[in-house]
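#structure-requests
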Amino acid sequence: MAFEGPAGLLGEPATDREAYAAFPVLEHEGFTAFIHREVLAYRDRVKPTPEGDHLFFVEGFGRLRFRLVSNTDAHS
């Protein structure tokens, strides 16, 4: 099941900045993903896909898949 609601942006939000957490995009220097805090709370409540990803719905794009990794995961 995918999260439906506020999701994420590739680039800083124009309004309501405090509602988002910033994350660098792995292997894409210069890109920052801003994930809505409601998505992060949802992520904590549900199991990931078998691949370890989470799904969320973005109006106009459909379902997107994401995974948050730690710095140690990124370098292994």
